[in-house]
Amino acid sequence: MRHIPEDELHSYLDQALSRSQCVEIESHLAHCGACRGERDGIAALRDRTTALLSSLTPVRDRIPPSWGVLSRQAEERRSRRTARRQIGLWAASIVAALGLGWGAQALTHRPLPAESNLAQLRPAPVQTHRTSTGQQPAAFHAAAPVTRPESALVRSSVPGAQAERAERAIDASDRAIAAGDTLADPSPTEPVGTRLSTGRLPTSDFEFAGEGMWRTLSWDNAKRERGESVPRIRGLPVVEVQIGMSRGDSSGGPTMIVAQQLSSGQLIRTIEGPATDVTRLLASQHAESRSPWPTVQDSLAASDGTMSMLRGDRMLAIQASPSVPADSLRAMIRRLNAADR
Amino acid sequence: MRRVDELERLYQTSYTAVVRFLYRKVWDADRAEDLAQEVFLRLFQHKPEKPRAWVFAVAANLARDEARSAIRRRKHLTLLSTDPTPGPSRIQAADEAVEHDEQMEAVREALAALTPRDREVLLLWDAGLSYPEIASQTGLAVGAVGTTLARARKRLVEAYDTQHAQDHAAHS
Question: Which fold is adopted by the domain B1-77?
């Protein structure tokens, strides 16, 4: 005959068994005296345990709060937590707003480029055309049309020593303009525009597609290939150089387009080449913009943002995008022409 | 609303048991009262599905935290007395007070002689929790609760008797 295990009797007395288990145990107890004795002993143990533990009851002199008081306290705590959470959210939103503000400021005020890029953005060294060999210098001198003082432009047309002084003044001004608020002082040895020439030009209103083959070169490569004959405005970084391959190679060199950028973002293109090619080029460009290109009858012709000058069978043109005042263009191209002679 | 009524009924029927349960863990009547009120404040905020088991689970956690902080306090403070048991606030006869304190101390020591699991199961059972509730809180199988309780009861009584015999021998 199987007796009831001790832990089952504990569970039985603790009323932790199912009804069927209780019936089973009670039916056994009815016939088993040993198990009944065991049950009585466990019951006594249980009662004694309860009695011992009851001595560990605290002596309480506090009246517990009513349920209403407790629920009010809970509500107050909840509202305090909500307020703290809202304060935290406000603080977080303020911090986020400040962070966004700084981010926007950083975007609108772009930092100076890194030193490696800065060197590439430096303007070309300013050179005068007083060469000792007597060769006609190919480099052009001109001022940035937008920010050049009018007096300097006027003086640039004066020949002789006065013109040289004016040129020196303009050169210094060029450096200042080119350096602007983003560029460092020009270095005479570092190449210009090599990095920028790999990207797209800032404006796309001067498309030469369909006008024969063009090679796009970096300033370094163009200088290596064409030497100082590349027409450019001294003191401004060269973005890229395009050299025509279809015409004019046999008569004084191919057509070249040199894109340079002012610190203000304006793009200056200097175009030099056979008059027919340059005229066709500018005419096609104007045809695209549906505005008549001025007939090149005089030595000087101008339209919005563009000015050209005939020099024998060759033509020199300057185009600014966005447009600059005609006086600035005129002064610039006269200086380019004078420098070329 | 029905839920709130249920919680209120639980508060009315279990508050004393919770205070007692906590007292047997922190051994400070005032602190046990404070913790019990904290337990029911949290109960009102959380409104759990099984409030009775939840109340004792939270009470056990609070008591555990209290014990840890008490240990930290003891590390920083030099306590002259090692007996944190509060004296009865009511005026009692001196011999009654002494007898009460002695028995209480003996039971405390007997309880301390149990393993933590046996002690926890015994106190939860004494607080009125069912076997499934005890099993849920302690991680035991329901069938193991009876076995654990049987062992705990036996050891508690044995430890108390041993302690009582030693005290009696010391006094005589």
Answer: Rna Polymerase Sigma Factor; Chain: A (1.10.1740)
Distance CA A154, CA A146 (A): 14
Q: Are A335 and A170 in contact (CB under 8 A)?
A: yes
Residue in chain B nearest A61 by alpha carbon: B89
Tell me, what's the pLDDT at A339? 63
pTM of the full structure: 0.46
In total, how many domains does chain A have?
Answer: 2
Which of A39, A49, A50, A78 is the best substitution to test chain B (most B C-beta atoms within 10 A)? A49
| A52 shares contact with chain B (CB less than 8 Å) | yes
- In chain B, where the domains are located: 1-77, 95-172
Angle between helices A6-13 and A33-54 (to 10 degrees): 60
Which of A310, A315, A307 shows the shortest CA–CA distance to A332? A307
- Report the share of chain A in percent with pLDDT over 70: 60
pLDDT digits (tens, 9 = 90+) for A113-168: 444 444 444 444 444 344 334 343 333 333 333 334 433 333 333 444 444 444 44
Looking at residue B22, what is its pLDDT? Answer: 92
- What SS3 state is found at A272? strand
**Structure token digits, residue A84:** 């703290």
Contact state of A14 with B149 under an 8 Å Cβ cutoff: yes
- Taking alpha carbons only, the member of A152, A172, A163 closest to residue A130 is A163
Residues 6+ apart with CB under 8 A from A82: none
